[in-house]
């Protein structure tokens, strides 16, 4: 007795996708729940795997197929080769995962010169019959017999003959050919097969079937299928099933039709029946766009009974499949048949709405709902968007100018300016501006804040522009290398099109598209509720969905979420988005603007420690004020403040004009400023004098910052807030580096607490952002009370790439799939992730209760958040606008860990 | 019954250093072998540890000391407190490792107002007696009673009183004071003790002894001893022993004397008795330099019997201690006493000569000899050196100008030039030149080759200048930051001293010293034999030593040694130094000089693939010729050739003048050249578009190089050489990057072999120089036939430091001991080493026979070589002149692994 290799549709169910493939399992399920599925059977993926390995079928499969075929003949009351009313079947592949268009299909199998007569007889439609026949011969000739053009640029042998026939008959389209024309074509097609591959076209339906099954199984290992699987990481060992199903026809005349429908609106998720159909048509006609299909609601008038039946099908399918379905149906001479169903693709908005609605309808659990939403889809609730009509019109009008990397989602339009100063000036006089730069630097912050959006020609997804834009919630496109910026002329050009200062340009931070002109935007409702308060929660549908999902997510997740924020207003935003603390407060951004930068430059240009301390004394009250502001907003939540990190040259202007200005401000010579800039120059600043190296070289900087933090903490604690400062030392590579800085901080703390006659609980810890720090985390944890993984720099050093320069080869690397993804956008778990894992484990070996988080930009990437959960971190920290994504991803990670749900993607 | 805490000298031996300390164990050993050691006993290190932990002695120690003391009285026939002939002792520390000057000593203990009379009586020398007494009181007052100046800048209370006495008496030196003066001083000293610490000076010798022992044990935990141990990684838990020994005096008159001697010459290793002595003197007089000591040979005339006895001692000591000894002796009234012996410090030359001679004499095994030589000491046989007299004179004349990092050992003098072109031009007209630059780049290679030595103001031990200099065997000092170079004026200044172009300057690559003027150098004999052939092996003593050591080392070592060489002449040198292959042939250096650089620049400036291929076609025959030259020299040995690594901008001039020149050569506009340079600019070139990233972006470069290598291999194989090319792809971070390049190489190989109708066995492998590559070595080994660890870049990325920039903080880091060593000079085994270990292990998990080596500059560092042995590498590769060091270190690693020898450092 052979194994069970063949399943009648009545024998399977939807949980058998591994064995029956997605299509086969769902056909079986529909059969099981009583939907009108044309009878058929499925040959399992095991047969495919056996065939791939051995080039032959397992013993007994032929007999099992024959048995299934006989059962099919019985079920349909038709039989193979019957000259009066022959059984015709389709033979289709059906893998576990959808691989659209990758494998082969044969339709109308069972036709030959004898059975064609039966079709003519039973349909009274010779033209229809011969049209089926010629399609079958060409499809079978191509797929099974390998009758293809010799060179890929040559015309298809069947297409060529069809074209010649049309020419001979003087007609333009296939449908104008008569039954006789098509009959003649069938003969010509068979001759073409003989000429091309030297074989006679098989007349025996059983021989046809065997050939088709083998061809479909064989197509699993064809080049394009292998390439596709490689691209989407589908294992070769999954194999495909083969479905043999009775043909039904929607093109027999006006009493027939075919359609594609969704159980809900896949665009916005609304719970309405949604779809399209055509009378007297085949499935491909609906999707090909040759004829304009009609809305499915109109079926009510054309096929009222079938319409009622479909409404039932819609309910039944959702109840049984427990997800929104995308299904195909055919009406053959007034009778409805279901040909396929699968989970429907949907927009982010629809995914959210459907998931929430289905919970409300009692169809799925909240856990299932959480698992069904791609965390990034939440962004669609959180960003301004272009008005769809206006955007479509712009595209139609050829306004798409260029495309860059979509670094800050949303849509923005503004008048082009080329400097931060201009952005500020123009915005002050009420203009909407778009800041266009080669790249941005900390000096540009105020200009970026003033702009609607930022567009840069250089830089990647974690360049300065991208980082700051996301933190600010600004729309941003970076690395748009087509832009040729002429700073002198205040213009940029793309392929000959020149855009001048003041021209309107719109950028789409979802797609990376840059468009000419002003496209209208609208703010998302969630923001109007959460931040502006300009809308009441109850008035906003999308806010309702958002708040439900976040509520469910917060119940599930174990990871805490913190935010990266430097200013009280950012911190306030973050709290609105659910932040449970600040994971990264960069102090360097506080040194720009007004007098601050002057004092900072005075400090940098100081000739000795005394002068440096004098300048630092000016910065102390400013920093103290900044920190106090943040502590007040964050109240009892922890605030991690990083000591000065960037190389000092970033605070000095690099152009002569700017240097002159600084010289005048500080009363020194421009040459002295230039000399200092020169002195600070580094060949590889990323690997240079920055982070704790600065604090070790100039202990007074760390001391001033520690004092500012702890004095502010005392001030705010005195106001009754339970402050939790966490002082974080950056760029530590060895235990001694950290120990040096920790000593400085603790010494200052003792002084401050003595002076104030009070103390605050504070922690001192470190960034783990240098590979060596992760490798020696056991040693570093001896002096660190917490770790925060700085995965931006860790990625740069582990990969040996600079985020400012990677644009030179990153696009090619992604195109050639040398890297599966931009490692700055999603954490490279295979490589960098190993160091994170090592760092967490070794750190906790030394200090079991070590608090561990992540504060790189990856903290807002869903896959990375899940990774952080798995390696046992305490929290992730990300920019305010990424918090919802992080919260949902953290919930998904917790649910996945419980493993209670085995959900398909 | 208490443990054994006290050992009479007659009870111990030299193997008991852990318990008795070095001094105590060796005193016991000398006693054991019958040498005349003044009797005494040792209190063990265990007592010290107990005391450090508990602040008190273990139970019963007092009684054990009393017993030992009584035994001592018995042995000497003297007793504590005897008014006629009292027992006087010294109390000295003696740790396992020598800690010179770190701990306390008390001499002449046992003197008081009663016993002094006995000393006067037995010596008939009251002045001598009171001199001993006043020394004892001041020493004891200081060390045991803590009578010190209140502020460290105040005069010592005893010194102060001594000075006042000398003033009162109107004398200049101590020796002019009379017995009465000294007696008065003793009383004043005691008063000083009372005034300062409020204690009466103890008169009871037993009380004195107890105090002294406790003080010496206590000094183990004094600040400077702790700091010293920290610096030299001596564990606190080792503790010190205390030695109580009968005093003997070399200063009782002309029948006494004292001396320090070596069993061989510690400067050059010659097997002669070597040392100095003084008549009527104490030990400190010999070393203080106040009196000029006499050569030990003269003892023959002064104390002929003692001299004969010392010759015997010398033989006995070497036979028993099995190493060259440095010992102290005292002759008291014609009788010889041995006070101490230890392994003598020696120069590198002496270490080599002594080790080899002792093998020849049958004293030690060849393994022991190999372990006794610091591998770096071999350099002293291999480098030109300054004439010692000339150098000393220059130092005396204040010619030392500055000090930098000694990057290329040896000594060189030359006339200062400031550009590579000048170096070439001046050398061509017969001048010896010294190339002085801020830093060097590949463009400077020919100038460096033309210079006697290289001196740079910037860069560290693995900067370009340092790397190339070592490979060339050039004397080199880098990072000499005191240099202020004025390129315009063609001068450099140090602290106001200005050196002009053409001035003579000498640099010492052993010490990093820069000296004004021309100091004469002489070439080492080993080089004259090995490379020049200008000397016969038998004529050179130092070559004899070198070749013996290398022979023994080669018998022991398991690691193969290869060299880093780009040119046939370097390869020839390397073979002379024992290279067993080339581990790193950098191809980029081949692109400089003459027409090569023109074709290279044409390639870089090519606008498209076609133009690029045209330019590459010009480079192909040049590269093929280069490779063939190397294959011919290396014969059957493997040659690892790295494909193009550096960023392309390194091949273009960055100044307008140079760009104009290139533009003219290539017939394009200077603006186009400038634009290309601008386009190639990177913020962090170290992490930019280089290595395999170039080969992936421009596959035609890798293909041209693979073709050049394999065509050359065919050419040379056709000449009858069994070539072994190994093609190495640099900067790989992921498996797919390497797979891409391996595919290119294999495709070209198939073409070349088909064209030639022959094939050569070749391998394709990769550098492991990116942390991610080490972490994913299991995956990369799937496509790599060998790994070569590029530890320069691996260090840069693992530490997050740039070797070109680290100079800004490295000196401070080393000074503050934040880093134990320059990680570019010796591999950071704790951090970077983990990645190397992971890389080797994971690589071999996938490919058990994976060939693994190292080709970073660390390959020539002895500690790193040993590490490479331990992690199981197959070979190390280093610059030709480091090969002897690597060979010896590899032998030591193999011997250490066998663990048969437990040798003290």
**Share of residues in strands of chain A:** 15-25%
Greatest interface: A-B, 48 and 48 residues
Number of helices of chain A: 35
* Rg of chain A computed from alpha carbons, rounded to a whole number of angstroms: 34 Å
- Reading side by side through the largest sheet of chain A, how are the strands ordered? 12-22-21-14-15-16-17-13
* Shape category of chain A: elongated
Poorly predicted sequence stretches spanning 5 or more consecutive residues of chain A:
none
Which structural class should the secondary elements of chain A be placed in? alpha/beta
Oligomeric status of the shown chains?
Answer: homodimer
Mean pLDDT score of chain A, rounded? 91
How many strands, which pairing sense, and closed or not: the largest β-sheet of chain A? Answer: 8 strands, mixed
Approximate helicity band of chain A:
40-55%
Task: List how many beta strands of chain A DSSP finds.
Answer: 31
Distance between the termini of chain A: 37 Å
How is the secondary structure organized here?
The structure is a homodimer of 905-residue chains.
Chain A: E1 6-8, H1 17-32, E2 40-43, H2 45-54, H3 61-76, E3 89-95, E4 105-109, H4 115-123, H5 126-143, H6 157-169, H7 179-197, H8 205-219, H9 223-231, E5 240-246, E6 257-262, E7 274-279, H10 283-288, E8 294-295, H11 299-302, H12 304-321, E9 325-332, E10 335-343, H13 348-360, H14 366-372, E11 385-386, H15 388-396, E12 400-403, E13 405-408, E14 411-417, H16 420-428, E15 433-437, H17 445-450, E16 453-456, H18 464-472, E17 475-478, E18 484-486, E19 491-494, E20 497-500, E21 504-508, E22 513-516, E23 521-522, H19 525-532, H20 541-556, E24 560-564, H21 568-576, E25 582-586, H22 594-605, H23 609-634, E26 638-642, H24 656-666, H25 670-680, H26 692-697, H27 699-718, E27 724-729, H28 735-756, E28 763-768, H29 771-775, H30 777-780, E29 786-789, H31 791-799, H32 810-815, H33 832-846, E30 851-854, H34 862-870, E31 875-878, H35 883-898
Parallel strand pairs in A: 14-15, 15-16, 16-17, 24-25, 24-31, 25-26, 26-27, 27-28, 28-29, 29-30, 30-31
Antiparallel strand pairs in A: 1-2, 2-5, 3-4, 3-5, 6-7, 6-9, 7-8, 9-10, 11-23, 12-22, 13-17, 14-21, 18-19, 19-20, 21-22
Helix pairs in contact in A: 4-5, 5-7, 6-7, 13-14, 14-20, 19-20, 20-35, 21-23, 22-23, 23-27, 24-25, 27-28, 34-35
């Amino acid at each position: 007795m052979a194994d069970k290799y063949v399943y009648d549709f009545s024998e399977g169910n939807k949980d058998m996708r591994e064995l029956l493939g997605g299509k086969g399992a769902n056909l079986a399920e529909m059969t099981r729940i009583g939907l009108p599925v044309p009878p058929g059977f499925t040959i399992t993926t095991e047969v495919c795997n056996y065939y791939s390995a051995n080039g032959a079928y397992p013993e007994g499969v032929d007999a099992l197929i024959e048995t299934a075929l006989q059962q099919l003949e019985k079920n349909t009351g038709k039989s193979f080769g019957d000259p009066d009313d022959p059984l015709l079947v389709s033979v289709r592949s059906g893998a576990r995962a959808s691989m659209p268009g990758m494998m082969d299909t044969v339709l109308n199998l069972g036709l030959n010169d004898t059975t064609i007569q039966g079709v003519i007889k039973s349909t009274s439609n010779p033209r229809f019959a011969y049209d089926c026949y010629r399609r079958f011969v060409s499809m079978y000739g191509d797929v099974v017999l390998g009758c293809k053009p010799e060179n890929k640029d040559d015309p298809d042998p069947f297409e060529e003959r069809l074209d010649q026939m049309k020419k001979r008959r003087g007609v333009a389209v296939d449908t104008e050919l008569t039954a006789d024309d098509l009959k003649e074509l069938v003969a010509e097609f068979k001759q073409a097969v003989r000429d091309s591959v030297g074989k006679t076209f098989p007349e025996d339906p059983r021989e046809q079937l065997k050939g088709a099954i083998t061809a479909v199984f064989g197509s699993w290992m064809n080049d394009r299928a292998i390439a596709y699987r490689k691209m989407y990481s589908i294992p070769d060992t999954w194999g495909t099933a083969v479905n043999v199903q009775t043909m039904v026809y929607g093109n027999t005349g006006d009493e027939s039709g075919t359609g594609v429908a969704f159980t809900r609106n896949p665009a916005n998720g609304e719970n309405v029946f949604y779809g399209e159909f055509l009378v007297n048509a085949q499935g491909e006609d609906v999707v090909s766009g040759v004829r304009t299909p009609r809305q499915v609601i109109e079926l009510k008038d054309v096929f009222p009974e079938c319409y009622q039946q479909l409404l039932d099908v819609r309910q039944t399918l959702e109840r049984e499949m427990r997800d929104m379905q995308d299904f195909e149906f055919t009406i053959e001479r007034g009778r409805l048949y279901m040909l396929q169903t699968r989970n429907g693709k949907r927009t982010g908005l629809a995914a959210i709405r459907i998931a929430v609605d289905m919970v409300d309808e009692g169809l799925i659990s909240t856990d299932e709902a959480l698992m069904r939403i791609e965390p990034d889809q939440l962004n669609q609730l959180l960003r301004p968007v272009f008005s769809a009509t206006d955007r479509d019109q712009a595209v139609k009008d050829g306004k798409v100018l260029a495309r860059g990397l979509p670094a800050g989602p949303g849509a923005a339009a503004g008048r082009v300016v080329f400097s931060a100063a201009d952005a500020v000036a123009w915005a002050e006089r009420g203009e909407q501006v778009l800041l266009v730069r080669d790249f941005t630097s900390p000096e540009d912050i105020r200009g970026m804040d003033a702009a609607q959006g930022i567009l840069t020609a250089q830089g990647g997804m974690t360049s300065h522009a991208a980082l700051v834009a996301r933190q600010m919630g600004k729309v941003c496109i970076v690395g748009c290398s087509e832009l040729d910026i002429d700073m002198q002329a205040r213009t940029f050009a793309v392929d000959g099109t020149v855009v001048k200062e003041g021209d309107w340009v719109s950028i789409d931070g979802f797609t990376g598209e840059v468009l000419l002109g002003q496209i209208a935007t609208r703010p998302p409702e969630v923001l109007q509720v959460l931040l502006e308060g300009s809308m009441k929660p109850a008035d906003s549908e999308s806010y309702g969905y958002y708040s439900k999902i976040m509520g469910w997510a917060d119940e599930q997740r174990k990871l805490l979420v913190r935010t990266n924020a430097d200013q009280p207003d950012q911190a306030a935003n973050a709290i609105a988005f659910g932040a449970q603390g600040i994971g990264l407060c960069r102090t360097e951004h506080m040194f720009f603007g007004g007098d601050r930068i002057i004092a900072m430059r005075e400090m940098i240009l100081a000739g000795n420690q005394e002068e440096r301390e004098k300048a630092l004394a000016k910065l102390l009250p400013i920093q103290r004020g900044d920190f106090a502001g943040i502590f007040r907003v964050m109240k009892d939540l922890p605030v991690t403040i990083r000591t000065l990190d960037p190389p000092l040259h970033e605070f000095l202007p690099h152009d002569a004009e700017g240097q002159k200005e600084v010289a005048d401000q500080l009363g020194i010579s421009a040459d002295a400023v230039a000399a200092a800039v020169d002195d600070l120059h580094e060949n590889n600043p990323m690997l240079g004098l920055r982070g704790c190296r600065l604090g070790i070289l100039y202990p007074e900087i760390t001391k001033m910052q520690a004092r500012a933090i702890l004095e502010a903490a005392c001030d705010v604690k005195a106001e009754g807030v339970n402050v939790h400062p966490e002082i974080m030392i950056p760029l530590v590579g060895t235990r001694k580096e950290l120990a040096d800085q920790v000593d400085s901080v603790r010494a200052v703390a003792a002084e401050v607490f003595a002076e104030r006659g009070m103390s605050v609980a504070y922690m001192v810890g470190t960034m783990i952002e240098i590979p060596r720090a992760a490798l020696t985390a056991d040693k570093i944890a001896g002096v660190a009370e917490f770790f925060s993984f700085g995965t931006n720099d860790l990625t740069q050093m582990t990969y040996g790439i600079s985020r400012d320069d990677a644009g030179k080869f990153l696009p090619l690397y992604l195109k050639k799939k040398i890297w599966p993804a931009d490692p700055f956008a999603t954490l490279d778990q295979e490589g960098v992730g190993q160091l994170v894992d090592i760092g967490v484990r070794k750190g906790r070996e030394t200090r079991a209760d070590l608090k561990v988080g992540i504060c790189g930009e990856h903290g807002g990437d869903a896959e990375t958040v899940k990774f952080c959960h798995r390696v046992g971190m305490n929290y992730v920290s990300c920019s305010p606008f990424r918090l919802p994504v992080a919260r949902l991803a953290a919930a998904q990670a917790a649910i996945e860990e419980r493993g209670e749900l085995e959900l398909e993607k």
